Amino acid sequence: MSEQNTQQEQKKIIFSGIQPTGTFTLGNYIGAVSHWGKLQDDYNCIYSIVDMHAITVRQDPAELRKHTLEAYALILACGIDPKKSIAFIQSHNRHHAEMNWILSCSTQFGELSRMTQFKDKSQKHPDDINAGLFTYPVLMAGDILLYKADLVPVGVDQKQHLELARNVAQRFNQRYGELFTVPDAYIPKVGAKVMSLADPTKKMSKSDENQNGCIYILDEPDVIIRKFKKAVTDSEACVRYAEGKDGINNLMSIYSVVTGKTNEEIEREFEGKGYGDFKIAVGEAVADHLKPVREEYKRLIADKAYLKECYTAGAEAAMRISAKTIAKAYRKVGFVDMK
Ligand code: TYM
Predict the structure, then answer these.
(1) Residue of 18, 51, 190 to test ligand 1 pocket, by largest number of atoms within 8 Å of CB
(2) Is the pLDDT of residue 207 over 90?
(3) pLDDT on residue 209
(4) What are the angstrom distances between the C-alpha of 25 and each of 98, 130, 318?
(5) What is the 3 state secondary structure string of the chain?
(6) Which of 1, 84, 184, 339 could form a disulfide with 40 if both were Cys (CB 3.0 to 4.6 A apart)?
């Protein structure tokens, strides 16, 4: 085996996914996707557009297809290099559905009932509390365990799902003998929960009723700056990071991530200045930071043949890995081998 191959084998494995439910928000980007590209040299990275998760809430099929391709182009535009990482569309690899069933039988009804995202989403969609919405965390556990991922880069809102994946992995290993790696969350120190600009006590989310609260990474610069200008803050008019200053804390975290400045540096930079100046500075810094992503996205989305080449190769590479895990899982639970 060549030295390069040995190094490749020794690297830890990373898995993460994102739903193709429209353009990514600044929260998706800062909390998760912006880190994915940076990890590619030090880890064996596998990233997926999780379209199977998306259908747990009702989707227009044509829109879902369009959004899935857009999301794929977007992760590449955010720095995922399909030559360094495996980047694929979840439904292209049937092992995810197969693993979902195996793991469902090692997951308790009670533990799924405790998932806060299930409670939130069933409140938001009371007319469609489907079984997929309930068992969604099992599908997610399978995504991670199929590739024996060591680390899972996600925002804080996915922590509970990751805990469940760990419990399911441990339970299966105890029942049937060692198979799965028990994964750890990889949560950024700053920006793991970007808050809505309109209500900084709530997470920034696509489903925010007030769209001024949510920045999309493909928003034009003037739109980004306008939304930041309207950001809800407090009445103190002093740029400092402190308890109770949710709006300013959120803006400082965002500014810190896109400029690399510490909170102390930011406080010094805006000493004696009002919130108006600060909000414009954050808006401009975010717009500048996202410019190359927007440009690269426009180039990629126009090149459907290239995207197809990448996601096909990605799915093939993903399946080569997951085929081994699913075959072992089948054997461990006692299914008869066909060969
Ligand atoms: P999704 O598609 O809702 O979000 C994708 C990633 O973005 C993070 N995120 C945020 N981070 C900081 N602040 C915010 N306001 C914010 N909003 C979203 C999420 O934490 C996530 O990391 N179930 C997952 C997708 C998934 C997955 C997986 C992730 C499916 N299988 C396996 C990791 C591993 C989800 O719905 O993420």
Answers:
(1) 18
(2) no
(3) 82
(4) 31, 26, 26
(5) CCHHHHHHHHCCEEEEEECCCCCCEHHHHHHHHHHHHHCCCCCEEEEEECHHHHCCCCCCHHHHHHHHHHHHHHHHHCCCCCCCCEEEEHHHCCHHHHHHHHHHCCCCHHHHHCCHHHHHHHHHCCCCCCHHHHHHHHHHHHHHHHCCCCEEECCHHHHHHHHHHHHHHHHHHHHHCCCCCCCEEECCCCCCCCECCCCCCCECCCCCCCHHHCCECCCCHHHHHHHHHCCCCCCCCCCCCCCCCHHHHHHHHHHHHHHCCCHHHHHHHCCCCCHHHHHHHHHHHHHHHHHHHHHHHHHHHCCHHHHHHHHHHHHHHHHHHHHHHHHHHHHHHCCCCCC
(6) 84
Active site residue 66: no
d(CA 318, CA 92): 9
Between the CA of 179 and the centroid of ligand 1 the distance, in Å, is 26
| 8, pLDDT greater than 70 | no
Q: How far is CA 137 from the centre of its chain?
A: 14
Supply 84's token pair.
Answer: 């360094």
Name the pTM for this structure: 0.95
Nearest CA to 53 out of 14, 96, 84, 12 is that of 96
| Interatomic CA distance for residues 211 and 224, integer angstroms | 11
Catalytic residue among 203, 227, 245, 279: 203
Query: From its phi and psi, is residue 22 left (phi > 0), alpha (psi between -120 and 50) or beta?
Result: left
Instruction: Kindly give the distance from the C-alpha atom of residue 110 to the centroid of ligand 1, in angstroms, as a whole number.
Output: 23
- Residue 206 is among the residues annotated as catalytic for this protein: yes
